[in-house]
Design brief:
The complex is a heterodimer of chains A (421) and B (417).
Chain A (H helix, E strand, L loop, with lengths): L1 H5 L9 E4 L6 H9 L3 E6 L23 H7 L3 E4 L5 H12 L3 E4 L5 H4 L4 H7 L4 E6 L14 H7 L21 H23 L3 E6 H6 L5 H8 L9 E5 L2 E4 L1 E4 L2 E5 L7 H13 L5 H4 L13 H16 L3 H11 L3 E3 L3 H5 L2 H5 L4 E5 L4 E5 L5 E2 L19 H8 L4 H9 L4
Parallel strand pairs in A: 1-2, 1-4, 2-3, 4-5, 5-6
Antiparallel strand pairs in A: 7-8, 9-10, 10-11, 12-13
Helix pairs in contact in A: 2-8
Chain B lengths: L1 H6 L13 E4 L5 H11 L3 E6 L24 H6 L3 E5 L7 H11 L2 E4 L5 H4 L4 H7 L4 E6 L16 H5 L25 H19 L3 E6 H5 L4 H10 L16 E5 L6 E5 L3 H11 L15 H6 L1 H12 L4 H10 L4 E3 L3 H6 L1 H6 L2 E6 L3 E6 L3 E3 L17 H8 L4 H9 L5
Parallel strand pairs in B: 1-2, 1-4, 2-3, 4-5, 5-6
Antiparallel strand pairs in B: 7-8, 8-9, 10-11
Helix pairs in contact in B: 2-8
The chains are: A alpha/beta (421), B alpha/beta (417).
Chain lengths: 421, 417
């Protein structure tokens, strides 16, 4: 178990989770597994459809080589089960009797149609916490809508606010819609669990991915509600007040950096950058003369932004990202890298905290570097993290069905032949 | 709601976090969104603020009637519903003792300062644990505790850049753009609440407190884990591709009638594409049936032309009507909701996503409820965000039992500022 490796108990070690989700909900169980819960990923025979989501190891599109699966099924164990057959349903009910949580992401009504609704499962285990993660929730006018990532990010209000102002709205190139719902699924499971601890009662939880995305919009909905204004996307700029906006992303010699010109309490950062520019023989007299210290947030006018844009842009494109980042650290300038995956692998802070972990994939004869724990204890001990490579299809069938539930090897053989597992 | 009928459960009077006391030092967005969930689900959350140094969000637009004021920010009001507020000058010599009394009352202390700040007040976990051995403390910072960059300052959109999401957003022929706003501030809280509740659970089981340290960088990287693995095993650096998707065509955002109106759609299967064909050309003739678009591979090869023709077609449609028409034809499609649309969105209305609270200075204002409906113990937002220092007397006298004399002396000494 994870705790044996980590030094102290992982937070959720006593609990078992049945994870029936596909690519639309895997993250919920992953979060609980990272905190030490025993998560059984229940896959249809042949494997979860999430195994078809790329990218793939060596670009080889096989179910055991999906990096999406690796990322969000690691730490879990896998059993296969055909929920559409009677024996499969019976096995699930046996598993439910011993489980603390069940998480699923099927279309609304699917499990109910199989006689596996919460009401049915609660008869077997009244303490069960069951969490459903769907694009829009279990009911309502969109509940049967088809949703893919881009549809969800659009309906959640995220896309309208993201992208260049002279082009169509854009999504993030890596899909996030179902990840928001998946993370909310873990939150929801723990909320219902907390109620169970004091009341002894399980319950059903209905999570909407659309709502989860709509909660990422900061104060944009309040700006409509209170001011009657509709915020628009600003490209590389950030709106600070009214017509005023400051540039955030700047090209440099070999990539991009993030820098916002600001005055007031962080005027020192602007002054330090101007000083650095002087070392590079930039004429900054006009900019030095500005009273940065007295400038409030949102006071940079479009005219001033234009005046700044030329020399700043020229300075940045004259340096590499690494030079700018290191120079800024030395000079206390609030400038940051627009990171790429390569930069993250060698990130000094992630390295110092031991974030990435090598996990062995014996079948491939390789070790692979995985993102690690999202929490630690305050004194640096492991209370969560990655400890088991993603499971092969049905890898733990014998462990669970035979060793734990007591099925004989001939029963297992029969179930295998009939396509139940 | 059918979801609740199916469960045969009627919401009771209780909430999951009834009886859980939270001493909340969080500020700006990521912390307050975290503790908003806790308040919504029943915890008693007391926010510690300062009159001398009021939090950033209290000075952030939008303001009621456009007039700035310490109690007039809609941004602050939205993220601090269901909380109480007290004001304490943390640099006052008597502040520490007062906070230790609060820590005795609390089950959970939350903070998102630069690491070392709580310790500088001698209120680090080791000191708090002495007065309350079962205490859970939750700390979150940009970079996590320890390491060479633990004190790196940051704000707004910085973390989206640091975590690699900015590089994945925008058009391939243009500079990358930030995902809207301080995007990572709204990814972290769900992990945070799950971790906090796991910590409280462990404390209940073992009687032992725990200090949880969450790096927002490390947490947010879980939202791009496959991208990191792609680099680790394939040496590939994924970058932004606009609205394209390797598994679908057409896939993108298409203009509709009116100003800045757009429809998002994606055809991942032949069924999706057939639905789109039928909608565009019910008679089975015309460009959608051009052999150049017959298979996904064909459509991928001719995607620019496909997008152009589709945009010509979509631009005469009203966006809502087009969404409904395509969904009835089995095509995944959704309108690009702006913030007004969100308030009018039929599904969000069905879920009661926005709720109005009555604030003494702002009046009725909208805030969003959480995205999870618990059948037996649902959350609810009942009280508006606190005025600065609104609950000083109630919290200190009624919750932790200060006498009138003690309270008066703190007030006179300038501790409650």
């Amino acid at each position: 178990m994870p705790g044996a490796q980590g030094g102290i108990d992982f937070l959720l070690e006593p609990y078992r989770v049945l994870d029936l989700t596909d690519e639309r909900g895997l993250l919920a169980g992953k979060i609980l597994a990272d905190m030490g819960a025993d998560v059984l990923q229940v896959e249809p025979p042949g494997g979860s459809p999430a195994r078809n989501v790329g990218p793939f190891h060596g670009d080889d599109p096989q179910p055991e080589k999906s990096l999406f699966w690796w990322a969000y099924a690691a730490n879990k164990r896998s059993i296969t089960l055909n929920l559409e057959q009677n024996d499969g349903q019976a096995l699930l009910k046996k598993l439910v009797a011993q489980a603390d949580f069940l998480i699923e992401s099927f279309s609304p009504g699917y499990l109910e149609g199989l006689g596996l609704s919460y009401a049915e499962l609660a008869k077997i285990n009244p303490k069960l916490v069951m969490v459903s993660i769907t694009p829009f929730g279990q009911d309502g006018p969109y509940s049967n809508y088809q949703a893919t990532d881009i549809v969800g990010m659009a309906l959640g209000g995220f896309m309208y606010l993201t992208g260049d102002d002279d082009r169509a709205p854009v999504r993030i190139s890596f899909p996030h819609f179902y990840l928001h719902g998946g993370a909310a699924g873990a939150t929801a499971a723990m909320l219902a669990h907390t109620y169970r601890v004091t009341s002894g009662q399980g319950q059903y939880v209905d999570v909407s991915c659309q709502q989860a995305v709509a909660k990422t919009l900061a104060h944009a909905p309040q700006i409509w509600d209170i001011e009657g204004a509709i915020l628009k996307r600003q490209g590389v700029f950030r709106q600070t007040s009214g017509e005023n906006r400051v540039r955030i992303n700047w090209p440099c010699k070999d990539g991009y950096v993030n820098y916002m010109v600001q005055g007031g309490t962080v005027a020192y950062s602007t002054r330090a950058l101007l000083d650095w520019m002087k070392e590079d023989k930039f004429d900054t007299d006009d900019l030095d003369a500005i009273d940065w210290e007295k400038m409030g947030y949102g006071a940079i006018t479009p005219e001033l932004m234009l005046q700044l844009g030329g020399p700043l842009g020229e300075f940045f494109t004259g340096h590499t990202r690494a030079e700018l980042v290191q120079g800024s650290l030395d000079r206390r300038i609030l400038l940051f890298p627009v990171a790429t995956p390569a930069a993250l692998q060698g990130h000094p802070q992630l390295e110092a905290r031991g974030y990435f972990k090598e996990i062995e994939h014996p079948e491939l004869g390789e070790t692979v570097q995985y993102p690690g724990a999202f929490i630690k204890s305050g004194d640096g001990r492991d209370i969560a993290g990655i400890y088991r490579r993603p499971p092969l299809i049905g890898e733990h069938n014998v462990q669970i069905y035979q060793e734990e539930m007591g099925l004989s090897s001939s029963e297992l053989e029969t179930l295998k032949r009939s396509g139940v597992i | 709601m059918t979801a609740q009928q199916e469960t045969n459960q009627t919401p009771g009077a209780g909430k999951p976090l009834d009886g859980v006391n939270v001493l909340d030092f969080c500020w700006v967005a990521v912390g307050p969104m975290t503790t908003k969930y806790l308040g919504e689900f029943g915890a008693t959350v007391v926010r510690v603020e300062s009159v001398k140094r009021p939090g950033t969000l209290r000075n952030a637009a939008p303001f009621k009637d456009g007039v700035p004021g310490i109690n007039r920010s809609g941004y602050f009001a939205s993220y601090n519903a269901n909380k109480m507020g007290i004001t304490v000058d943390m640099r006052h010599p008597r502040a520490r003792d007062l906070m230790l009394r609060m820590a005795k009352w609390a089950h959970l202390v939350t903070e998102n300062f630069t690491p070392g700040t709580m310790e500088s007040w001698e209120l680090g976990f080791d000191q708090l644990k002495e007065v309350n051995p079962g205490l859970v403390m939750f700390s979150t910072s940009m970079m996590g505790r320890g390491g060479p960059m633990e004190r790196q300052p940051g704000f707004g959109p910085v973390l989206s850049s640091l975590v690699g999401l900015t590089n994945l957003t925008g058009w391939p022929d243009r500079d990358p753009v930030n995902p809207y706003g301080a995007y990572t501030d709204f990814i972290v809280p769900r992990f945070a609440v799950a971790a906090i509740l796991a910590g409280l659970d462990r404390s209940r089981r073992t009687g032992e407190g725990i200090h949880i340290d969450m790096s927002q960088l490390e947490t947010t990287l879980h939202f791009s884990a496959p991208v990191l693995l792609d680099y680790a095993v394939n040496d590939r650096e994924q970058a932004r591709v606009g609205n394209r998707d390797p598994g679908a065509a057409p896939h993108g955002v298409y203009p509709c009638s009116g100003d800045d109106r757009w429809l998002a759609l994606g055809c991942f299967s032949d069924e999706h594409w057939a639905g789109l064909q039928r909608t565009i050309a019910p008679d089975g003739k015309g460009w959608p049936y051009n052999p150049d678009f017959a298979t996904l591979l064909n459509r991928k090869a001719n995607e620019d032309e496909l997008d152009r023709l589709l945009s010509d077609w979509s631009s005469s449609w009203e966006v809502g009507a087009l969404m409904e028409t395509l969904q009835s034809a089995g095509v995944p499609a959704g309108m690009v909701n702006d913030c007004r649309d969100l308030f009018e969105d039929a599904q969000l209305q069905h879920r009661g996503h926005f709720q109005w609270l009555d604030h003494p200075e702002i009046g009725p204002y909208a805030t969003d409820v959480s995205e999870m409906v618990l059948s037996l113990s649902p959350g609810s937002l009942d009280t508006p965000a606190p005025l600065l220092g609104e609950h000083n007397s109630h919290v200190l006298k009624n919750l932790i039992g200060l006498t009138d004399e003690e309270y008066k002396s703190l007030e006179e000494d300038g501790v409650l500022e």
